[in-house]
């Protein structure tokens, strides 16, 4: 990687190499172009930066800390494991970092309503929070399967004033929630901003969400250096769409001695419909307005996926991740449902931190990587807390 990476990717059309772009209906084109132009204009202004900085410090509670996982590190006897505590960000995950940025942009655009999809509910809660903060209407589309799994977050969204729209077609999970939200958005794009929940979707959203999430990596880089006197040997984050990973990775791109790992959900097996490992098992394709690595069925359409973590249950991945895999800068690994559930219990019992099932995928891989690496260090993006998963985990698997 060189210093020119961020000036090269994405290009003016929103492509990260072969991936990305904006494959959208003609009637949406002017709206996306306006969003892109306004983002590029206002995001660099002192007024926008000052307001977002104030929000992050005084509303979100940033910076979030880095924690040395002393007990787990001692148990393994290998690399030292550190956690970037995004679970301590207001609303319990990294999602608020881009939701507040998107809502602030919506304010500049004169939008009246925010609309989005959600899987695990963390993006939905974050956007409902942002809408309440800015005094906007909010509509969240969520698959019925995820509504049952993530009931606490459904309650939070409603308490925050959002309308939760159950999605009852198809697999009734995250992909269908995106389909439903897009259909609703297309009815009134003039007054609505579709605040996409990850580094996915048509240009400019992969760029915008990455940039709003980069606060995670910038903080982590400075904090880790202050704590240890150097940089981590290994940086790890879970990858569904991949916003938490891009936020962390972005600040270490030009450090060749820092290995970057994205951890995909391998579910229960590598068979179609039993995982959501888009980079490991997918092929190029177009979904929801962008080109990426995509799990496909026999007809070449987006295929069925499955993960214990609702927030990773998506057949595609952010286009920048597809590029970084192609360039070889990020190594994409995977963790199974079983491994992630075990990591969920281990982190809870040994560190007193209950992680989101999404984040537990990164923890699971880190535990494997740490073995036999005495003297090295690992930094994990603990992207969210597990409050939302408690009922599902305990009712389904017990207390471990």
3D structure, described in words:
With 400 residues, this protein is an alpha/beta fold. It folds into 2 domains: 5-56 and 95-206, Rossmann fold; 62-93 and 214-397, Rossmann fold (3-Layer(aba) Sandwich), CATH 3.40.50. The protein is 44% helix and 18% strand. It has helices at 5-8, 29-42, 46-58, 70-76, 95-109, 122-134, 144-149, 151-159, 174-185, 205-228, 243-249, 278-281, 319-327, 337-351, 357-370, 390-397; strands at 15-16, 19-20, 66-68, 80-85, 113-118, 137-143, 163-167, 192-194, 234-238, 259-267, 283-287, 290-294, 330-336, 377-382. Strand 1 and strand 2 (19-20) form a beta hairpin. The longest helix has 24 residues, at 205-228. The termini are far apart.
Rg of Cα set: 19 Å
- Tell me about the biggest sheet? 6 strands, mixed
Question: Would you tell me the overall average pLDDT?
Answer: 96
* CATH class category label of the largest domain: Alpha Beta
Shape: globular
Number of domains: 2
**Proportion of residues in helical segments:** 40-55%
Q: How does the helix and strand content classify structurally?
A: alpha/beta
What's the count of strands? 14
CATH topology (fold) name of the largest domain: Rossmann fold
Q: What order do the helices and strands follow?
A: HEEHHEHEHEHEHHEHEHEHEHEEHEHHEH
Helix/strand layout:
Layout: H1 5-8, E1 15-16, E2 19-20, H2 29-42, H3 46-58, E3 66-68, H4 70-76, E4 80-85, H5 95-109, E5 113-118, H6 122-134, E6 137-143, H7 144-149, H8 151-159, E7 163-167, H9 174-185, E8 192-194, H10 205-228, E9 234-238, H11 243-249, E10 259-267, H12 278-281, E11 283-287, E12 290-294, H13 319-327, E13 330-336, H14 337-351, H15 357-370, E14 377-382, H16 390-397
Parallel strand pairs: 4-14, 5-6, 5-8, 6-7, 9-10, 9-14, 10-13
Antiparallel strand pairs: 1-2, 3-4, 11-12
Helix pairs in contact: 3-5, 5-6, 5-10, 6-8, 10-11, 14-15
């Amino acid at each position: 990687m060189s210093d020119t990476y961020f000036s090269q990717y994405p290009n003016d059309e929103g492509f990260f190499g072969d991936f990305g772009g904006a494959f959208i209906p003609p009637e949406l084109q002017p709206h996306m172009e306006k969003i892109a132009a306004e983002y590029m204009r206002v995001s660099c202004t002192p007024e926008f930066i000052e307001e977002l900085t104030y929000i992050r410090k005084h509303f979100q509670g940033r910076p979030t800390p880095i924690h040395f996982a002393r007990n787990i590190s001692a148990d393994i006897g290998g690399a030292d494991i550190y956690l970037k505590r995004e679970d301590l960000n207001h609303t319990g995950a990294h999602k608020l970092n881009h939701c507040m940025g998107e809502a602030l942009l919506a304010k500049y655009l004169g939008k009246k309503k925010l609309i989005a999809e959600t899987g695990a509910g963390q993006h939905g809660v974050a956007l409902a929070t942002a809408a309440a903060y800015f005094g906007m209407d909010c509509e969240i589309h969520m698959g019925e399967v995820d509504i049952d799994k993530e009931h606490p977050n459904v309650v939070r969204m409603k308490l925050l004033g959002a309308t939760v729209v159950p999605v009852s077609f198809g697999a009734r999970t995250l992909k269908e929630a995106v389909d439903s939200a897009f259909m609703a958005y297309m009815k009134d794009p003039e007054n609505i901003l579709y605040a996409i929940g990850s580094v996915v979707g048509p240009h400019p959203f992969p760029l915008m969400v990455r940039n709003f999430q980069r606060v995670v990596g910038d903080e982590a880089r400075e904090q880790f250096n202050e704590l240890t006197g150097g940089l981590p040997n290994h940086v790890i984050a879970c990858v569904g769409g991949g916003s938490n990973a891009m936020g962390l990775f972005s600040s270490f791109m030009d450090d060749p001695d820092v290995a970057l790992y994205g951890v995909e959900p391998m579910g229960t097996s590598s068979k179609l419909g039993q995982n959501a490992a888009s980079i490991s098992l997918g092929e190029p394709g177009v979904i929801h307005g962008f080109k990426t690595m995509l799990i496909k069925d026999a007809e070449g359409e987006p295929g069925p996926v499955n993960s214990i973590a609702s927030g990773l249950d998506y057949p595609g991945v952010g286009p920048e991740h597809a590029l970084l895999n192609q360039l070889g800068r990020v190594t994409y690994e995977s963790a199974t449902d079983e491994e992630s559930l075990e990591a969920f219990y281990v982190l809870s019992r040994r560190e007193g931190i209950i992680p989101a099932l999404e984040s537990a995928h990164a923890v699971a891989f880190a535990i494997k990587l740490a073995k036999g690496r005495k003297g090295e260090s690992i930094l994990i993006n603990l992207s969210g807390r597990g409050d939302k998963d408690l009922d599902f985990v305990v009712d389904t698997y017990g207390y471990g």
